[in-house]
Design brief:
Layout (H helix, E strand, L loop, with lengths): L8 E2 L57 H5 L3 H19 L20 H6 L1 H4 L37 E3 L6 H6 L1 H13 L10 H23 L5 H10 E5 L2 E4 H8 L9 H7 L45 H16 L1 E3 L3 E5 H9 L4 H8 L5 H12 L10 E4 L7 E3 L1 H11 L1
Parallel strand pairs: 6-7
Antiparallel strand pairs: 1-3, 2-8, 3-4, 5-6
Helix pairs in contact: 2-6, 2-7, 2-15, 7-9
């Protein structure tokens, strides 16, 4: 996938609108059409010109972690994991407003901060991405209600320590701070063309494609801009593609054909109307890329960059099922609420999962109760008893999917960003 900020390939005949020249490739552009008020007034600025990929040297210190080339020579799964870690770090550094970390001087309040303030932070942001780095720094503000659920009486659990990136700033100064990481990211994306996903086992494919999907969409938002409506969002799923094993793979293909998601995910009705089918045609060699059987838990792993989406995390071939179970548990603990004692508010993603997993509505609340606190279980019982002559489904209310842009990152991913500030 050849592109601007990295190497994303446009498979659409509609050329992306751009206010920037090439950053790291030939055809990918940074779009500022939907940037925040922090970024809007400086998007006319040219970004840095193409930075060549240095395949024979490391972007890391000699006495630091292992060189990037070491990761490129390992398994496809390890490569996909590092793609997520690298892009998550880039997002943390481009966060608008900037993230604050305990013990670190406050970064510029927005993209419109003075050049003096930006210059003073050059040392903080200019380091490259380091595979394998760790840190134990913590962030100032816990996420008390990441999904803004009404009547949330219990703890949000692990989501309390997730890191929120509410927007990304792509002005010239901020992009210059991540130029080396973008170069490393491009190196890894280009290496995807050399891997052969057909040789992977089921669990390896599952973890690999979840990571690739999430990294691809983050990369696409950075390069094409954040879509303003569902039609543009759907188009982005088709436009942004990587070359994997020599074949072009876009986000829609990963979601529908490779991972086998059949549920009505965001913009699904538009996809069914305008995009190709959800299965590879006979003779399509990409069929060997698909997982053996669909995994419903993928619903809690794929992130489209919406406020209703689960946090982004790394999935590994060895522990992918445990990691997916953990993602499901943590998401449900943070996203279920109540409206008085009459309605239980359930996230739309759970509805998609229930369809994928063939969980009936009549048994859904009993299934959900295992993820609730004791206080929430009591409230659930009151909801069910509020109308004893009706089925339990009467108290279910599905919360609409919120398409507004936002990324949440698992604490392990954010720790890599912290380490670059320490």
């Amino acid at each position: 996938m050849q592109g601007n900020i990295g190497a994303v390939k446009s498979t659409s005949h509609v050329q992306p609108k751009s206010r920037h020249n090439s950053m790291l490739g030939d055809s990918m552009n940074v779009v500022g059409s939907s940037m925040s008020s922090y970024s809007q007034n400086i998007l006319q600025t040219k970004v840095a010109k193409e930075i060549p990929v240095q395949s024979n040297s490391s972007s890391l210190n000699e006495d630091g972690p292992r060189p990037l080339r070491d990761y490129l020579s390992e398994t496809p799964n390890r490569l996909s994991e590092e793609l997520i870690r690298c892009m998550a770090t880039i997002y943390c550094k481009l966060s608008d407003p900037p993230l604050n970390v305990l013990g670190v001087p406050e970064s510029p309040s927005s993209c419109t901060s003075s050049s003096t303030s930006l210059s003073s932070l050059h040392g903080m942001y200019s380091d490259g991405w380091s595979p394998g780095c760790r840190a134990d720094l913590s962030y100032e503000a816990p996420l008390l209600d990441p999904f803004q659920v009404k009547g949330k009486s219990g703890s949000v659990g692990a989501y309390n320590s997730m890191i929120e990136v509410p927007w990304i700033c792509v002005d010239k100064d901020r992009l210059s701070y991540v130029a080396r990481m973008l170069r490393d990211f491009r190196s890894m994306v280009e290496h995807l063309e050399k891997v052969d996903p057909s040789q992977l086992k089921h669990d390896e494919k599952l973890a690999f494609w979840i990571n690739i999907y999430n990294a691809l969409l983050m990369h696409a938002y950075l390069a094409y801009g954040i879509p303003r409506n569902n039609l543009k969002r759907m188009t982005l799923l088709q436009r942004a593609a990587y070359k994997v094993g020599g074949r072009s793979i876009n986000a829609h293909t990963i979601e529908q054909c490779i991972l086998g998601c059949r549920s009505h995910r965001p913009t699904q009705w538009l996809q069914n109307l305008l995009l190709p089918g959800s299965k590879f045609k006979a003779g399509d060699e990409r069929r060997s890329y698909a997982i053996e059987t669909p995994e419903p838990l993928v619903c809690f792993a794929l992130c489209c960059g919406g406020k209703s989406d689960p946090a982004v995390r790394v999935y590994t071939a060895k522990n992918v099922h445990d990691e997916l179970e953990s993602a499901k548990r943590q998401f449900l603990q943070a996203s279920i609420g109540f409206q008085s004692d009459k309605k239980v508010l359930l996230p739309k993603i759970l509805e998609w999962y229930s369809r994928e997993a063939s969980i009936s509505l009549s048994s859904l609340l009993d299934w959900v109760s295992q993820y609730l606190s004791e206080k929430e279980k009591e409230t659930l019982v009151k909801c069910i008893r509020s109308k004893p002559n009706k089925s339990t489904t009467h108290c279910i209310e599905w919360v609409s999917y919120n398409f507004s842009f936002r990324y949440l990152f698992d604490k392990e991913l954010a720790s890599r960003f912290s380490s670059r500030l320490s």
